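Good morning N.,

You mentioned wanting to compare the apo and holo forms, so I went ahead and generated the holo version with manganese (II) ion. This is what I fed in:
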Amino acid sequence: MRILVSNDDGIYSPGILALAEAAAQFGDVRIVAPDVEQSSMGAAITASRPLRFRKTPISKFDAYRVNGTPSDCVALGLHLWGGADLVLSGINLGSNLGNSTWHSGTLAAAKQAVLLGTRGIALSTPVEDDEPEFTELAPSVTKVLQLLIPRQQPRLLNVNLPLNAKGMKWTRQSVRHYDGKIIPDKDPRGREHFWFTVTPLEKAEQGTDRWAIENGWISITPLRLDLTDEAALSATLESTGETPASGR
Ligand code: MN
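and this is what came out, ligand included:
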């Protein structure tokens, strides 16, 4: 089994090495990841300049650093390797819950895999002030991969792993809103600049990814790429008397 490993924290993140080491128990691993941090880049692709890669051995692994986004890395990685059976992304330094699904480069790498017909699993861990202890997290990562790898479905998964988890929960994405405040400040030369801040506004809904992590569980959320609001589409078609366009 060929497993392509990527991330958005950059190829030198301790999280990607931890993930590659866990993945190596299940198949041949190749790392293709951004040369610098690309967190919060979402599913951006590089279309206005060329992509390049350089071989960068990471520990015992065959690894390549790319001057692009997580989505670029997955597309280029699958192209150069002639495909893979699975794409793993992470382990992100910081959880990816609820609204992060929209902004996360970690998740975007897994989504890019699914867009290209390969299974994609994103893994993230909450971080406090210190970097997470990946040696302590390793048994949980292995357990999650043991559960998920043999299954062919779901195709796209978002996994968040707290340290010392009580167990695993299958969850849905929290849709809690955040305030998204823009905080103005001044740089050392007195010029104005801004920080985008994300502060959740509502409590986590039971059964969601955020709820699971707040309660000490590993959260596994199946995701899909089709964002169509089926209920709204049906209701609109019904109210206008139109018949659904074919194509599904
Ligand atoms: Mn990141």
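The chain is about 30% helix and 25% strand.

Happy to go through it together on a call whenever suits you.

Best,
F.
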